[in-house]
TrEMBL record:
<keyword id="KW-0472">Membrane</keyword>
<dbReference type="InterPro" id="IPR046739">
    <property type="entry name" value="DUF6789"/>
</dbReference>
<feature type="transmembrane region" description="Helical">
    <location>
        <begin position="44"/>
        <end position="70"/>
    </location>
</feature>
<dbReference type="Pfam" id="PF20587">
    <property type="entry name" value="DUF6789"/>
</dbReference>
<protein>
    <recommendedName>
        <fullName>Transmembrane protein</fullName>
    </recommendedName>
</protein>
<keyword id="KW-1133">Transmembrane helix</keyword>
<feature type="transmembrane region" description="Helical">
    <location>
        <begin position="90"/>
        <end position="108"/>
    </location>
</feature>
<feature type="transmembrane region" description="Helical">
    <location>
        <begin position="115"/>
        <end position="136"/>
    </location>
</feature>
<feature type="transmembrane region" description="Helical">
    <location>
        <begin position="6"/>
        <end position="23"/>
    </location>
</feature>
<keyword id="KW-0812">Transmembrane</keyword>
């Protein structure tokens, strides 16, 4: 486990996810599905900066560290391990965060596409997280273990 590499991988994956979210919003695709706005409203602070900072904290620190901790226990190649991990993060979002944000379980109050779109975004985040972590952790995995 390498926490620094987990945090770095989480940061890279969060940047990729954020770019996808911004593109989605600018194209007008599911404008009601705006996680940054949801986080901002839940915080009660009224500024998108709080939403963005919280989003980056969760994706970089929380998920990055947790992924570094459990990476080796997940099956498959690095990108698949990341996507598998992100499926768990998605499930937590669907059963905890979406109802707290007033969108109902699985965000279904926003329509049937909400859970599908968020799952795809989580898989993309996770695939990047796993691939980057796998590439950065590879050199230490190839080192011989000394007793």
């Amino acid at each position: 486990m390498n926490i620094a590499k987990g945090i770095g991988s989480g940061f890279v994956a969060t940047i990729v996810l954020s770019a996808i979210m911004l593109m989605k919003q600018s194209m007008g695709v599911m404008p009601q599905l705006n996680p940054i706005q949801m986080i901002t409203e839940m915080s009660g602070m009224g500024t998108l900066l709080v939403g963005w900072l919280t989003h980056f904290f969760i994706g970089t620190i929380l998920w990055g560290v947790l992924y570094a901790w459990i990476d080796r226990s997940l099956p498959g190649p690095p990108w698949f391990r990341g996507a598998t991990f992100a499926t768990g993060a998605w499930l937590l979002m669907m059963i905890l965060m979406m109802p707290m944000a007033g969108a109902g379980f699985f965000g279904l109050q926003m329509g049937m596409m909400a859970p599908v779109a968020t799952l795809v975004m989580h898989w993309l985040y996770g695939a990047v997280l796993g691939a980057v972590y796998g590439a950065w952790a590879r050199p230490e995995r190839e080192q011989p273990v000394h007793a």
